[in-house]
Amino acid sequence: MDITADTLAMLAAFSLKAQFVAKAATYARAGRALYPEDHRFVELLGYALLLDGRSDEAAPVIGEARRETRNTAYLKACLAMLGDSPAAERQNALRAYLRME
């Protein structure tokens, strides 16, 4: 990857760590616009939106994930638990997360 992509991802991650959720979402959106192939920005933006309580905005972002990673499985499980998903769908999302390595 590019040094700019790494810097934006680092700034977004540090902003999340410092609980600057809106700032993290801004960095992740910028990274997603500049580097659409980088899955880190989808994960960071989805997590920032979930922390900010905007699960309706987080759902399409997380759904765009091209790679199934442990982080995306976690975010999908969080969305299933927060939403009005049936119990079977919530269980499947949690199982998928727990199976990821």
Written description of the protein model:
- This protein is mainly alpha-helical.
- It has helices at 3-17, 21-34, 39-51, 55-63, 70-82, 87-99.
- Helix 2 (21-34) runs antiparallel to helix 3 and helix 3 (39-51) packs parallel to helix 5.
- The radius of gyration is 13 Å and the shape is globular.
- The protein starts with a helix and ends with a helix.
The H/E string reads HHHHHH
Q: What's the CATH architecture?
A: Alpha Horseshoe
CATH class: Mainly Alpha
Rg, Cα atoms, Å: 13 Å
Q: Which percent band covers the strand fraction?
A: under 5%
Short description:
This protein has 101 residues and is mainly alpha-helical. It is built from 6 helices and no strands. The protein has a single domain (3-99), classed as Tetratricopeptide repeat domain (Serine Threonine Protein Phosphatase 5, Tetratricopeptide repeat, Alpha Horseshoe), CATH 1.25.40.10.
Write the layout of secondary structure elements.
Blueprint: H1 3-17, H2 21-34, H3 39-51, H4 55-63, H5 70-82, H6 87-99
Helix pairs in contact: 1-2, 1-3, 2-3, 3-4, 3-5, 4-5, 5-6
